[in-house]
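Folded chain entry —
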Amino acid sequence: MSPRPVVSVITAHTQQEGGGFTVRRPFPSRGLAQLDPLLMLDEMGPVHYGPGQAIGAPDHPHRGFETVTYILDGEAEHADSSGHAGSMSPGDVQWMTAGAGVVHREMPSRRMQREGGRMHGFQLWVNLPAAEKRIAPRYQEIKAATIPSASSPDGKARVRVIAGEALGAQAVIATRTPILYHHWSLDAGADVALPLPADHRVGVYVFDGTARVSGRELHAGQLAVLGEGDHLTLSADGPAQALVLGGRPLNEPIAWSGPFVMNTEQELREAYADFRAGRLGRIPPEIVRA
């Protein structure tokens, strides 16, 4: 077996998004534009809101890609211009295929807005191939109890499989192209080898504690970009958590501006024109505003 080496380490920067909440973002950044087909990773929190302080992302459009929201702590409510609405609790995943376009809203739950509480989660943007950028919007909402999980034989490494496969557990989410999305929890003494598809580009984001990725030590807020090979190793001397992210590259041109990710500048202009003209719709007023 050929281990995948760490070819670069990116330290996440912080910035504000949505209605003013802070995210920790390893990419896109100066050191890493994309991890094709993955466009962006935001870590939201962890943050503790007091009563009346919780903020989210009010109405905004999307076209041409997918958003994957994974909640670790807190509660969120969402709605969109197709009339879809729902809620998320700790451990839940929402995989939204924006496709041809939606206007979307993601906010802390009304209870959290009233009472406050801890919020922590991730949003990953996944590019769509050119042939699928105008498909009909679709949602996959997976509750925590139904996300497959597995453990190493000694129990020191545990994984929740959002996309792809690990330790014999296969994801229940259907992806448009081959994608990996694993949440690993490591105890002291954990040491696990993870086979990886040779044609996937892969990164590992450590968000809690310190872990070794293919022998390279990473601290919370750092992303390891891996080179070629057929597996990676994860180990730790103390409690740590990490996301293993990747996919088969699309190798297509990207025209990206704000909430739209297309292949050409003309398609971007069309996306903005459609949004301004109301052709992406609006969130129905009968959906209670979160």
In short: The mean pLDDT is 94. The first strand starts at residue 6 and ends at 11. The first helix runs from residue 110 to 115. Residues 43 and 210 are 17 Å apart (CA to CA).
